[in-house]
Amino acid sequence: MKILKLSILELMRRPKKNMLIASSIVIAVALLTSLSIVSNSANLAIMEIIAKTGHTLTVRPAASSSGANAGGKGQEYKLTTSEVVLGSYIPEAAVPEIMKNYDEAIKAGWEKKGGLVSNPGVPGVVLEPATWAPRLFEKAEVNGQEVIVTGIELRKEYFVRFWWNLTSGQWPADTDIKDVNTNISTQYKLDSHGNVVIDKTSYGVDSSGRIIAEEEKKKDKVAPVKPILKGWDDAYLGGAYAKARGLKLGDRLAINKTEFTVRGILEETNSADDYMVFIPLSTAQSLFRKEGLISLVSVRAMCPNCPVGDAMVELNKNVTGITAVSQLDVAGVQFDFFNMLYKFLLAVVVSTIAVGIFSIFNIVTGSLYARIREIGMLKAIGASRSQLFRIFIYEHFILGLAAGIIGYLLGLGMAYILNTLLDIGAVIRISTDFLPRALILGVVCSLVAIIYPAYKLSKLKITETFRTQWES
Amino acid sequence: MDNSNGTAFLELKNVNKTFNLSYGEVTALEHVSLTINKRELVALVGPSGSGKTTLLNIIGSLDRPSKGEVILEGTRIDTLSEEELVHFRREKFSFIFQDAKPLRMLNVLENTLLPFNFFKPKNRNGNIRNEGIEIIKSLGLGHRLYHMPSQLSGGEIQRVAIARALITHPAMILADEPTANLDRDNRLFVIETFRKLSKEKDIAIVLSTHDLEIANRADRIVHLKDGVFLKDEAIACPPCKV
Ligand SMILES: Nc1ncnc2c1ncn2[C@@H]1O[C@H](COP(=O)(O)OP(=O)(O)O)[C@@H](O)[C@H]1O
Ligand SMILES: [Mg+2]
User: Fold this and answer.
1) What is the pLDDT of residue A171?
2) Domain with B28 in it: what CATH number?
3) A310/A372 same-domain check
4) Considering the domain boundaries, does residue B2 fall inside one?
5) Is residue B149 part of a domain?
6) Which ligand is nearest to the CA of A470?
7) In this predicted complex, what is the ipTM?
8) What is the DSSP string of A12-73?
9) Which end of chain A is more exposed for a tag (fewer CB within 10 A), N or C?
């Protein structure tokens, strides 16, 4: 305790020198703290987005972008994204194979990465099975005007496109969705006589790798739908479309002469969805005589950092007749960007610290050797080697601790400034998570610089210290 | 050798000290034998470089002889380990240096009690702080108890060093040129204080000095030159010789 007191007094005795030493530690700690806080906040924000969205992968028919498909009838429409491709299809029956390949690739890639990326505090960071949603696009006459009508499985679609919101109306109840999606599409197909047809779509691949569907064969056999199940004639409208046409909840729509009721209007998402009319997939398939066919499957990975790229490569390699396109989210790109930025800045900080420690080392060594006479005196009056060593260690422990605290506080401030300057827009999360790290860094920097000289000095023979004393 | 002043406290037997330097060996002491008794005040006199400091270091166990023996109250101490020597230093010796800088951040009283930051006082009854105050007062510094070293004169600083030396109740005080930087009044004060202490408190005191006026107030003068004893003279009536 008394040695600690001597250390504290000793510290106060050289305020300027100690402030100089402390300032380089403060800077190092502040840099590292602010960097950690900003990048952590940014990462957390990004990770949350990714955790929510996952990376999505779009699986389309092979060569669908060429536009020369589907017996020459196919026409390619590009709205705001390249999502809408008309006239080429994947059989629904191919989905299990696609998903099997996808899940295996994700799992393999995930394991290759060494399991979970550790991001504590981010909800949903677990490897869950991916969810998928099919879509069938068709151009149709709605109330006399051509528009893209999209068949979707409501429940799946809503889950993949979790950002969908209704400005008015409501989603069908779970049971209804089940009726509409599962029952109609997988069990009930109605033929021209209103009889249930069990759909067993088979498909093959032609010489150019394109899936040959049997739509032509069915063309004449299947009559316009007369679905009997609840919700078959529900329609949901893209926000922009509803606005443009002045359509409201409960309005009736005629799609290719079949009547639908508007059950909901979607909030605009700045995508092709805004201009579409959505109806149940099974209804669409029957209505457009595309039984068992879909235009694409969207797959939403349920993990941040999912190796979606791996899955894409595997799918394109293993499943014929399809093209998988990874739509790495903006968030993912940002995430990589911040990781790079973080690594770069970290390297800068680490070299700053190295230089800092070196200069501290020099200052400390200088000041210690100036204290050499005093050390000799203390030894002569009975201080043991370890007591002397402790005086230095305590001094620098306190110095490092104080510098760590100040550096941490400064770092918090700098985090706000950095956040504004870099326009990261992440909410800076003040947590004490980095405080222990800041303190340890401060103390370690301070001690690293002192340990060697302190050890050498405390080992110095008394007569050597005296000699300096008596001869100077 | 004159042992009449008391019983032998410390004995050097045929001590040699050489320093190995990069350019060769330096012999600082050669064949030095010396007995120091309790209550004795000994002055080491010799020109600069004659080995006074080296001798004081060896007596006080701050350094070891290259050859020969150092015997303290019958125990050979030059072969003890550094850890064992710490105890001897704490219990037997006190040192006063020429440039007796007290610690700048401690006041007079705290500097006096400084040794007890490192070990506990032994065999004391009574408050150690009060004893410190008494010692400081006895050295005429009663009005300076809580002053900082920067506020003191050279003579006062040397008295703080003496107070610090006394607080541990040493058997022997070793003082290397304690009067070198002092004016005459203060020099006389130091040597007279030493005289008194050696007699009243049974402390053996060895000091080195250039100053014959000071040396002549000791019980005994040991003359050194180039590491060798020239003569060892007893002063019959030390103060009378001045
Ligand atoms: N630590 C040391 N290393 C090398 N030489 C030393 C050391 N201490 C003393 N000497 C040498 O020993 C001799 C005696 O020195 P010293 O005891 O300091 O003499 P004094 O105190 O009488 O001036 C000198 O030649 C000095 O240079
Ligand atoms: Mg000397």
Assistant:
1) 76
2) 3.40.50.300
3) no
4) no
5) yes
6) 2
7) 0.88
8) HH-HHHHHHHHHHHHHHHHHHHHHHHHHHHHHHHHHHHHHHH--EEEEEETTGGG---GGGT
9) N
